[in-house]
Amino acid sequence: MELLSTPHSIEVNNITCDSFRISWAMENSDLERVTHYFIDLNKKENKNSNKFKHRDVPTKLVAKAVPLPMTVRGHWFLSPRTEYSVAVQTAVKQSDGEYLVSGWSETVEFCTGDYAKEHLAQLQEKAEQIAGRMLRFSVFYRNHHKEYFQHARTHCGNMLQTYLKDNSGSHGSPTSGMLHGVFFSCNTEFNTGQPPQDSPYGRWRFQIPAQRLFNPSTNLYFADFYCMYTAYHYAILVLAPKGSLGDRFCRDRLPLLDIACNKFLTCSVEDGELVFRHAQDLILEIIYTEPVDLSLGTLGEISGHQLMSLSTADAKKDPSCKTCNISVGR
Q: What is the three-class DSSP state of 140?
């Protein structure tokens, strides 16, 4: 039987966090003969990875020939924000069950995308299931070392400047390494209604009245839900003044929450005053997308311990947790 030509001019497009579309060129004489495609997909090895570590086993997909381009989805457990290489081979299944195959095409590299809004909506739904009842609070707070606040006072015009969010949380979060903001907490102790005296981030605490950051002129977005191999879970929310750069970034990428009615963080008018509540059973991490003036709040030392084990700096999400993972890439 006449040999098959080698596929060439590979194109990969329509890339999402868990799918891609692929096409290639082959000789016209092969179009009628080819019965199957072999697609070889490999995760690119991290330059910094341990070279003695077991490599990913190359994964080949055998697919019946369909008109190109073809969409690859669900055949592999693709991870978001991950570099892959792909090559293709065409084949004719013969009467004896063996395949006549072409040569392998050139290898093409691509990177999968972030979670889309619909994936974040699935995470949001999972977070809502364990959020618990709502507790009142009155301040947002940020814990850090004394030197951090001194630097803000002397070198940053008394402002807490925004910085780029790290890679903590879900690997597919569109905010990681992309959104600038200042992190705040708002969780309170159940028995006192006050912020806890312990902190993983430093002995000094800046407290600011909640209405300074969260009010009807602020949009609230759901950004992530994760855990770090522990029983407790974290939700990341974004507070963005309406029309700000941060608001425009979030509008296209994150689910928008109703500030007066959601399961995580609310601001509502009761008896003519703004009342604030947070979910009891989640540790909330709040990203405020604008610089914050230290003169709008108070700074003081806390009396508790520095619980480093609770730090979420660049924390990796537990990929096996059924509570906070969805059925696309981690």
A: strand
User: Does 253 fall in a domain?
Assistant: yes
Alpha helices in 203-321 (DSSP H): 210-213, 245-251
204 and 233 both lie in a single domain:
yes
pTM of the model: 0.84
Cα dihedral 23→25→29→31 (10° resolution): 0
- The answer, yes or no, to whether the previous bond of 69 is cis (omega within 30 of 0) is yes
Grouping H, G, I as helix, E, B as strand and the rest as coil, residue 73 is strand
CA distance 89 to 58: 14
- Same domain (yes/no): 278, 135: yes
Question: Distance (Å, rounded) from C-alpha 311 to C-alpha 134?
Answer: 24
Half-sphere exposure of 149 (CA within 13 A, CB side): 21
Is the domain of 58 the same as that of 84? yes
pLDDT by residue (tens digit) across 282-295?
Answer: 999 999 999 999 99
Count of structural domains, the chain: 2
Pairing of strands 234-241, 283-288: parallel
Run of H or E including 206: strand 204-209
Q: What is the CA radius of gyration of the chain?
A: 25
Residues 184-208 pLDDT 10s: 999 998 778 788 887 777 889 999 9
